């Protein structure tokens, strides 16, 4: 046998609990009329849904800033393949979710040492370099010399501290980005996958870069000082003279159905896995009895085709491949193939290699 077999998790579509968040301490309804929001929540499902709600509900001409940070999670781009980008085994070992966000771009790691900024503008005035420059100036007021590269990454020397992504819908656009302040960089490295050259995927690949934390260059930088600096720079740039609207979690979310629905959608199979662009994955496991070439083709998270060929192949391998078709990639129950693998030990070896190769972690909040 090639690898030890770990049973695949069952596909679960349980919706997340929405009891534990609210919009303001006084149950005051959330309104999009403010210009500067800072979320006190560290729930990534809440913060990403809040961001989307603000994007869709703010008057399209007015600038808006949102700052937030999240509990540990990996955030993939709208058009990415989680099995290519994320180390599912490492995610599972740490009980950390991956979340597909609504903007494009690559995969990043978040924890409380990483603060996210989100700047929303009218499409006509939107300029992604200008917003990156705003953040660069904010950091320079904290005494760290950073530069913006041609991809709009913010870097210290050649090391990246901030990655960006964008979304444009109708008259509105946003630029959101990360800021590595004191993130656990070893965890970041362990959770992003690097060993999937034989997974060929449509959609977007991440652009890997060396990273560092701002804290390495200034011991006084933290979430609060970064938030203050970006807020000041935003006020200066857009001539906004308003206090920060803090958004709390803990009570009264029911007012905002849009956010509640967003929080339910993000961890659903349909969104997290079912939005995966088409891909093929080839593996070549070697057993005592020989080598097998397996190619799996999947689209929207469903296995379209599995071909296993070997010098010793027989009807069993063909049947095994056929059984997987139409099932969810990474969520195939052994019962689907049980009779085939029970009567042929080589088929069992191949199935176990396949199950290991398709490993999935379906975190549910
Ligand atoms: N937190 C964080 N910040 C900066 N760079 C990171 C981070 N995590 C990983 N990386 C590095 O960036 C590349 C991916 O770069 P790439 O350019 O492909 O993707 C991005 O940067 C996307 C940024 C999305 C920002 C959103 C803002 C709010 S929700 S998420 C990855 O392989 C690592 O090398």
Automatic annotation (TrEMBL):
Superkingdom per UniProt: Eukaryota
Question: Which InterPro entries has this protein been placed in?
Answer: aa-tRNA-synth_II/BPL/LPL (IPR045864), BPL_LPL_catalytic (IPR004143), LipoylTrfase_LipoateP_Ligase (IPR004562)
One GO cellular component term of this record is:
mitochondrion
Function of the molecule: Catalyzes both the ATP-dependent activation of exogenously supplied lipoate to lipoyl-AMP and the transfer of the activated lipoyl onto the lipoyl domains of lipoate-dependent enzymes.
Q: Which CDD domains would you find in this protein's record? A: LplA
Pathway the protein contributes to:
Protein modification; protein lipoylation via exogenous pathway; protein N(6)-(lipoyl)lysine from lipoate: step 2/2
Q: Does the keyword Transferase apply?
A: yes
PROSITE patterns tied to this protein: BPL_LPL_CATALYTIC
Family (UniProt): Belongs to the LplA family.
Organism for this UniProt entry: Heliocybe sulcata
Q: Which Pfam families match?
A: LplA-B_cat
Tell me if Ligase is a UniProt keyword of this record: yes
List the protein's name: Putative lipoate-protein ligase A
Q: Any idea where the BPL/LPL catalytic domain is?
A: 59-242
Keywords for this protein: Ligase, Transferase
- SUPFAM superfamilies recorded for this chain? Class II aaRS and biotin synthetases (SSF55681), SufE/NifU (SSF82649)
Query: Care to name a GO molecular-function term for this sequence?
Result: lipoate-protein ligase activity
Give the record's GO biological process terms.
protein lipoylation
């Amino acid at each position: 046998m090639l690898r030890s077999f770990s049973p695949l998790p069952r596909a679960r579509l349980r919706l997340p609990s929405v009891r534990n968040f609210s919009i303001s301490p006084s149950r005051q309804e959330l309104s999009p009329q403010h210009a500067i929001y800072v979320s006190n929540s560290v729930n990534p499902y809440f913060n990403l849904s809040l961001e989307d709600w603000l994007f869709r509900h703010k008057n399209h001409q007015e600038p808006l800033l949102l700052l937030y940070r999240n509990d540990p999670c990996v955030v993939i781009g709208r058009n990415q393949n989680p099995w290519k980008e994320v180390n599912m085994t490492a995610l599972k070992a740490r009980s950390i979710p991956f979340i597909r966000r609504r903007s494009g771009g690559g995969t990043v790691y978040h924890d409380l040492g990483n603060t996210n900024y989100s700047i929303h503008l009218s499409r006509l005035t939107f300029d992604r370099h200008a917003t990156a420059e705003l953040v660069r100036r904010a950091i320079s007021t904290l005494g760290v010399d950073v530069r913006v590269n041609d991809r709009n990454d913010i870097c210290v020397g050649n090391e990246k501290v901030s990655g960006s992504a964008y979304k444009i819908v109708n008259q509105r656009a946003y630029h959101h980005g990360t800021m590595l302040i004191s993130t656990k960089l070893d965890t970041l490295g362990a959770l992003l996958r690097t060993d999937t050259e034989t997974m060929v995927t449509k959609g977007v690949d991440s652009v890997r870069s060396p990273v560092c934390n701002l804290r390495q260059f200034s011991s006084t930088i933290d979430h609060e000082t970064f938030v203050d600096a970006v807020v000041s720079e935003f006020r200066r740039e857009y001539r906004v003279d308003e206090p920060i609207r803090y958004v709390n979690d803990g009570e009264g979310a029911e007012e905002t159905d849009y956010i509640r629905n967003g929080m339910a959608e993000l961890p659903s199979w349909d969104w997290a896995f079912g939005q995966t662009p088409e891909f093929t994955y080839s593996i070549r496991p070697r057993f005592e009895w020989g080598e097998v070439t397996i190619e799996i083709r999947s689209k929207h998270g469903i296995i379209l085709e599995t071909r296993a060929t070997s010098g010793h192949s027989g009807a069993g391998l063909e049947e095994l491949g056929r059984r997987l078709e139409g099932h969810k990639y990474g969520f195939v129950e052994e019962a689907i193939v049980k009779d085939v693998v029970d009567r042929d030990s080589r088929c069992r070896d191949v199935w176990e290699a396949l199950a290991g190769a398709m490993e999935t972690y379906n975190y549910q909040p």
